[in-house]
Specification:
It contains 12 helices and 12 strands. By secondary structure, the chain is α/β, with parallel strands linked by helices. Helix 4 (58-67) packs parallel to helix 5 (88-98) and helix 6 (110-125) crosses helix 8 (160-171).
Length: 330
């Protein structure tokens, strides 16, 4: 009887992906945090063939850099989160030199994130804060309800999340614009028009909603700065569901306080949890969620499904389902 493949699953014990580890024929999962792996014997760690990173915070990143050399026979690393910017030092130090493949959780949570985009559209379009205020004040206010039909939504970054969001938006009659590095890349006809990243002013001027779904890389740091926000229409809504580092939050707060934007909806931030000192907390026309737009009851199950596709590729010698370009960072 052949021995089981050993796969290390590194993360906090309470993480959904660690509490919902599936049973896979021929696989033994070694589960735990960094401290648990540090306590394991070298004989066991020498047999580990692959690693799964459950969450990507700075503490785990430092730990990965420390424990990875104790598992010299790893041939593949998978990240449950789609964004891998927080483990960039680990990728640079260990994965790139040894040319170890990296895959991620791309597409696992696209549905819930696409629903969040639509929710944000309707939140401002139907003036939900005004409705809630009217109820609290017992005020009968028969204002005109706007509709999203014919409105224009622009996605900055047009990968899996944006494309599914675009399908949902088109279903309610919205026009879709896309901004991406590779303008000519096929998107199945979802975008009515596509722009390059140096055409901010041209695209933003047309948008009722601008949605950031950019990955976090050195090139995208503060992509949305004060100049970018001022390119948007004064009645536009800005949304961010990609990576928090791409938004200059102080600039956003300044612009919104002048009344230039109709509103903003943010689920990701440069520092999480968002510090109490952040000026974002004081913005009345801001929809703020705690990076939980994708935190659904089936979060772990969805994450493991994407991992399984890559595992099948790993053992079958087939193309990866969700490969990460380690040099580009996404």
């Amino acid at each position: 009887m052949s021995r089981s493949r050993l796969i290390a699953v590194v993360g906090a014990k309470t993480h959904p992906c660690l509490t919902q580890v599936p049973t896979v024929d021929g696989v033994e999962f070694l589960k735990g945090g960094v401290a648990e792996f540090e306590a394991m014997t070298s004989n066991k760690l020498n047999e580990v063939e692959a690693m799964i990173c459950c969450s990507l915070d700075s503490t785990l990143t430092d730990g990965l850099i420390k424990i990875f050399p104790t598992m010299p026979n790893i041939r593949w690393v998978h990240s449950f989160p789609a964004g891998v910017d927080t483990i960039a030092p680990f990728i640079k130090e260990h994965l790139i030199p040894r040319d170890i493949p990296l895959t991620n959780g791309r597409s696992a949570f696209s549905s819930s994130l696409a629903e969040w985009v639509l929710t944000a559209c309707f939140y401002f379009n139907k003036q939900i804060p005004r409705c809630m205020s009217n109820r609290a004040a017992k005020r009968w206010d028969r204002f005109n309800m706007d509709v999203v039909d014919t409105k224009t939504i622009g996605f900055v970054g047009f990968g899996d999340i944006s494309q599914l969001s675009a399908k949902y938006c088109k279903a309610v009659g919205m026009r879709v614009l896309a901004m991406r590095r590779n303008v000519g890349k096929d998107d199945g006809g979802l975008a009515d028009q596509t722009y390059s990243t140096d055409q901010k002013a041209e695209m933003f001027a047309q948008c009722d909603y601008v949605v950031s779904v950019l990955p976090g890389t050195p090139e995208t740091l503060d992509f949305f700065d004060e100049a970018a926000f001022k390119c948007m229409r004064s009645d536009a809504v800005f949304m961010s569901i990609g990576r928090g580092v791409v938004v200059d939050e102080d600039a956003l707060a300044r612009v919104m306080k002048t009344g230039h934007l109709k509103g903003a909806a943010l689920d990701v931030f440069k520092m999480e949890p968002l510090p109490e000192s952040s000026p974002l907390w004081d913005l009345e026309n801001l929809l703020l969620t705690a990076h939980n737009a994708d935190k659904t009851a089936d979060f772990g199950e969805l994450a493991w499904k994407v991992w399984r596709k890559n595992y099948d590729a790993f053992i079958g010698g087939k193309p990866w389902a969700t490969p990460v370009d380690k040099q580009a960072g996404y």
